[in-house]
Amino acid sequence: MSRTPARTSTEIATQPAAWRRAALAAAGFDGLPKPGERVAVTGCGTSWFMALAYAALREAAGLGETDAFASSEFPAHRPYDRVVAITRSGTTTEVLDLLAALRGRVPTTVLTADPKTPVMTAADEVAVLDWADEESVVQTRFATTALAFLRAGLGDVREATGVKPVEEAAVDAELALTEPLPEAALGAEQWTFLGRGWTYGLALEAALKMREAAGAWTEAYPAMEYRHGPIAITAPGRVAWVFGELPEGLAGDVARVGGTLVSRPGTDPLADLVRAQRLAVTLAESRGLDPDRPRNLTRSVILAPEA
Question: pTM of this prediction?
Answer without folding.
Answer: 0.94
